[in-house]
Design brief:
Elements: H1 2-30, E1 40-43, E2 48-49, E3 52-53, H2 55-69, E4 76-79, H3 91-101, E5 109-112, H4 118-132, E6 136-141, H5 146-155, E7 159-164, H6 173-191, H7 197-207
Parallel strand pairs: 1-4, 1-6, 4-5, 6-7
Antiparallel strand pairs: 2-3
Helix pairs in contact: 1-6, 2-3, 5-6, 6-7
């Protein structure tokens, strides 16, 4: 019993150390903008409503547009599919239309419209990298989302520079805690190579 108690205590301590370290890395990554010259800008999808970006997606697209206008990359990739409840609309297409309306030429936009979560978006970004011979990316998303994106992209062999979107309004302590819990759970599952796509999809929807 003493051995099992000690092992359990060690496991709990290791879990706490992991969570403290991971929390620090997520917060640190969220607070810095590493955007620099790259082959393309990749905007990770968020919800769209009837073909129009949600406020969160809107903010991500605005950040990508600002990077494009600074001349950091010649191409913007909008990532994200749709849901069966949304009459065929997709996040990638909504992002493309928004960028077109804001003066980005169509030949400078690539819309990925099949992925349903962050992992699939990274997989599809890897395919696009091969097809278009892209080697480096500025990736745009919510600040707390970027550490997990960076981890997934590095595992896929992509060179990425993270760039957080601008804050949106006021987020209360509960909202911040929910977002952080979302990332702690999702990133831990990625680190442990757990396949919990259903949980990921639920968490992604909660984060939109």
């Amino acid at each position: 019993m003493r051995l099992w108690t000690r092992l359990l205590g060690l496991f709990v301590v290791l879990c706490l150390i992991w969570l403290v370290w991971l929390h620090h890395e997520i917060v640190y990554t969220a607070g810095i903008d590493n955007a620099q010259s790259a082959d393309a800008i990749a905007v990770f999808g968020a919800a769209e409503y009837a073909g129009h970006p949600s406020p969160v997606f809107h903010a991500r697209l605005d950040k990508a547009l600002a990077l494009y206008q600074r001349g950091l990359a010649p191409v913007i990739i909008t990532l994200g599919g749709g849901s069966s409840k949304d009459s065929g609309n997709t996040e990638g297409a909504a992002g493309r239309d928004y960028l077109l309306a804001n003066g980005v030429p169509g030949e400078h936009i690539i819309a990925e419209t099949t992925s349903v979560d962050t992992e699939q978006q990274v997989d599809d970004l890897s395919v696009l990298a091969i097809e278009h011979r892209f080697h480096t990316f500025d990736v745009v998303s919510d600040g707390t989302h970027l550490f997990r994106i960076g981890l997934l992209c590095r595992r896929a062999g992509l060179i990425v520079y993270t760039s957080p979107r601008a804050p949106l309004g006021h987020i209360d302590d509960l909202g911040r805690a929910q977002r952080m819990l979302h990332e702690l759970i999702s990133t831990t599952s990625v680190a442990l190579n757990l396949h919990v796509s259903a949980l990921h999809r639920w968490l992604e929807k909660r984060g939109d």
